[in-house]
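Board notes, transcribed. Complex of a protein with zinc ion.
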Amino acid sequence: MPEGDVIWSTARRLRAALAGQVLTRSDFRVPKFATVDLSGQLVTEVVPRGKHLLVRTSGGLTVHTHLKMDGFWRVRAVHPGVRPVESFKLRLLLANAQWEAAGYLLGVTEVIPTVEEDTVIGHLGPDLLGPDWDPARAVSLLSRDRDRPVGEALLDQRNLAGIGNVYLAEMLFLRGLDPSRPVGSIEDLPALVNLGRRLLDANKARPGHVTTGDTRRGQEHWVYGRGGKPCRRCGTRIMKGEQGPAGEERLRFWCPNCQL
Ligand SMILES: [Zn+2]
């Protein structure tokens, strides 16, 4: 499950390749939009919102995509004589005279009128990497359900948008909070959401999600992906378990000694 910083850097790459340029080709490999042709339209903006990506055109349309579990984008220069990308994993191709952006295994691929974007992103809480980031509002949305485990509430994109499993685990470790702690029992929620913003912001322009300050392979995280290994702070074995409503359980990693 990609984190908000991955969407942010993906949007940056797509913006550099597509924004301000006229599309010369579009190819939707999803049945519902297979006949849509955006060629001739100018791409006006590429905007990340939480984990959603919006490509807006001068025709008043928005290409809305979401990476979900396995999606990713590749951008490459267009050269005469180079064959267009072809793959059964391809969901969408957007190209101009210079660049070709290919979206693979996207969980959502659709075209909507730009004025109706709210129908797909209107439910999102404040975007941790958005220009309108509003920590007070995120805290107030998180506080709506005081009994909810913090490990669930932080992943709910209606509260705040952009946190996935990696940052969830790392934020809770750094603040010393057990993922099952009810939101209402946490004294300093502003510090928690501000930490999330800092971690995503620090990683948005580089690959990976480094929270320890150590970019070496295997050293990037405090607890995420380290089940059964010793805690970097106290040596206790890191716990790994599932949490969440039935059918939506997500993996959790935490140190039972450092996180209460
Ligand atoms: Zn520990």
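Strands lie at 25-28, 43-49, 52-57, 61-66, 72-77, 90-95, 99-104, 108-113, 239-243, 250-254. The longest helix spans residues 4-18.
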